[in-house]
Design goal:
By secondary structure, the chain is mainly alpha-helical. The protein has helices at residues 2-10, 29-46, 56-60, 65-82, 107-114. It has a domain at 2-93: Calponin-like domain (Actin-binding Protein, T-fimbrin, domain 1, Orthogonal Bundle), CATH 1.10.418.
């Protein structure tokens, strides 16, 4: 389990820069869990958000395989987004993460925006409180 994940994260780095230099082939539970932890640490360093990373027991005990899948999908998305040539898989399997999209507005544009009511706030054209009754009173429908 852990060895495969370590090989996966190492494959996303150029040769000689792998984050996990020694991958043990041991079948001992402690070593396997240690390698899962090394993978998780390396995935976070690679750019996967902490909230997208599963816990070691999620995989080891099979408790939350959906969390494991989310981590792998997030790792794939980061790899595709980096586009550094190390990811050699099918890019359409993962979505590319949004990059920065800065916008520059002049002072005049910012001032104009302060007087506009956004459509999300709705409109108050034609609105009044005519016919409204006090709280707790039934509506008078005739």
């Amino acid at each position: 389990r852990g060895g495969v994940l370590c090989k996966l994260i190492n494959s996303l780095y150029p040769p000689g820069q792998e984050p996990i230099p020694k991958i043990s082939e041991s079948k001992m539970a402690f070593k396997q869990m240690e390698q899962i932890s090394q993978f998780l640490k390396a995935a976070e360093t690679y750019g996967v958000r902490t909230t997208d990373i599963f816990q070691t027991v999620d995989l080891w005990e099979g408790k939350d395989m959906a969390a494991v899948q989310r981590t792998l999908m997030a790792l794939g998305s980061v790899a595709v987004t980096k586009d550094d040539g190390c990811y050699r898989g099918e890019p359409s399997w993962f979505h590319r993460k949004a990059q920065q999209n800065r916008r520059g507005f002049s002072e005049e544009q910012l001032r104009q925006g302060q007087s506009v009511i956004g459509l999300q706030m709705g409109s108050n054209k034609g609105a009044s409180q005519a016919g409204m009754t006090g709280y707790g009173m039934p509506r008078q429908i005739m």
